[in-house]
Amino acid sequence: MTTVLEILDGGTRYLEKRGIEDARRNMQHLVAHQLGCTRMELYMRFDQPIEETHLVPLRDFLKRRGEGEPLQHLLGTVWFHQHEFKTDRRALIPRPETEELVEMILQFPGLPENARVLDMGCGSGVLGLSLAAARPGWQVTLADVSPDALALTRENAAKLGLENVDFTQSDLFSSIDGTFDLIAANLPYVPETDRATLTREVQHDPDLALFGGDDGLDVIRRFLPQAIEKLRPAGWIALEIGHDQGAHVASLMADAGFTQIEVKSDLSGVARFPIARAAN
Fold first, then answer.
1. 30: Cβ–Cβ under 8 A, 6 or more apart, which residues?
2. Rounded to the nearest 5°, which phi and psi values hold at 37?
3. Cα–Cα dist 24/111, whole Å
4. Which of 74, 138, 144, 230 would be 149's cystine partner, CB 3.0–4.6 Å?
5. What is the block-wise mean pLDDT of the chain (280 residues), using blocks of 10 residues?
6. CA distance linking residue 258 with residue 180, whole number of Å
7. What's the predicted TM-score (pTM) here?
8. Where are the domains of the chain?
9. C-alpha distances in angstroms, 207 versus 72, 170, 212?
């Protein structure tokens, strides 16, 4: 009978041959998920035989991962900013850089304890729901044009037991009422011309969440002039964008009337997060 160590070794070789980066870690996650344990616990179970009832679904997962299906979709969940979120084909897979944006926003000065916050293009909800979890006094509205993504957001809000949130299906601000102290957004920003260069994993994300026209900025161009009309005086706006779009987005912010514009870098040194405020 196949042991845990044997399936780890064999699965790792299989994934490596199919070009999967960090194949060993991927295989550890798949085996741990199937056995209902943590990756660390696998080290104490190397000699344990794996029953056929576990091997059958594990072989299916292994095949799908080798074909480029994202690990997060196979596991069904992802850890993001101290919480476990459900993730699937309905929305963009959460990226580590977005966790940096959450931490950045939580340090913004001048936000009231009862701030009204909008997460525009919320996808799975990880950005807005993480803010709502960290600041129970804030009232967070999560909006998306996709009803499927919004359904996933609702499921994640229920999973976290959050009550300081509400949900709106909206094409940008078409169905958004009132004004906000903070608007955060991770909108589609991938140029259409980059489609052929995307990894197999990224290609499993919805087109609606990825592509923003020829230069990637079509949605952001529409968004910024509308956003400033929905911000309260001295309100904050915070975005996540592509690696080479910082200067262009900063210019668009200035044209829309924002002040105190700054494009902050992520931990890799990439100018990733345009931050600005509305006038007093």
1. 11, 58, 61, 62, 65, 71, 74, 75
2. -135, 180
3. 44
4. 144
5. 92 96 96 93 92 91 96 95 96 95 97 97 98 98 98 98 97 97 97 93 93 96 98 98 96 98 96 97
6. 15
7. 0.92
8. 4-67, 77-277
9. 18, 17, 9
